[in-house]
Amino acid sequence: MPTLLTAIYYLAFATPRYVSEARFIVRAASQEQPSALGVALQGVGLSASATDSFAVHEYIRSRDALAALEPKIDVAKMLAPAGADLMSRHPRPWEGETKESLYKGLQRFVTVGYETSTGISTLRVESFRAQDSQKLAAALLDSGEELVNKLNERSSASAVIDAERTKLEAETRLRDIQVRLTAFRNREGMVDPTLSATENSALIGELLSGIATLEAERSQLAAQAPNSPQLPILDGRLAAFRRQLAEERAKIAGGAGSLATKFSEYETLAAERTLAERAMAAASTALDTARVDARRQKLYLERIVSPSVADKATEPNRLRAILIVLISTLLIYGIGWLVWAGLREHRQL
Prior knowledge:
By secondary structure, the protein is α+β, with helices and mostly antiparallel strands. The chain has helices at 2-13, 36-40, 48-60, 63-69, 75-78, 99-106, 130-188, 193-224, 230-252, 259-296, 318-348; strands spanning 18-28, 110-115, 120-127, 299-305. Helices cover 66% and strands 9% of the residues. Helix 7 packs antiparallel against helix 10 (259-296).
């Protein structure tokens, strides 16, 4: 009787359904093809491509995907065309016309599978019209591509934004140090205390050389003419040279306004500027690397086979459904008969 009823339904009432299939792959730009050993070991754990593909699968079968479809396609009308039988269409007699019911009903018409050996995903969509199946499959693939684009934006934004923030902080630090260094130069009236110290050292060397020359001349003159009127003149020049020498030495070190004090402050600022420039260079390199990595790790949903338009209904498979019911009922009948026979023998004992 169940087999007879099933045969009557499938042969006389079941509405034919058209299937549209599409095949796609989700991969990163830098992803390489796995080796033979890698393919053999894919069962041990999930690869990155498999994880990305499963994310797209879950989204295609999610409520978010249905919500994204509704502004573009009247899914409820597509699943309940005029003339469709009550057991195939949505909603079925015991189902309500709610969003949740529509979501659960859509699961009967959409199937997504993954081939581990090739990494190719297959999207299979059924409906009561060939064009509707192709349209719904294409819309679901578009939704999957939008999800991949959102994932790319999130992954690239997190890394690149952090690198940009680090570079901005390094630029601000370098700019602040440069302002402080410029203020120091304007306040002290010198570009580089090191150059000033070098110039003063050269001047001190010249003064020492002049003093040595004058002392040699005076010694020679004093030995030859002790009462020479040139001696007071040489003494005056020596005194002037020594005063100038003391002043130049005082400029280099010895007082609060000496070059030594200024040199210490300048060296601190120069060292901070060097560190800031290195940090700036490192931040720029890190930003470039983050952008390159973001492009390299970008995901792509590539359509290998676009959604097809079937010219013949392939569902439901009437013969298979009838055979399944026949075999199932025979198994139930056989098990029931064995149980009944055992109970009857037990009663006789």
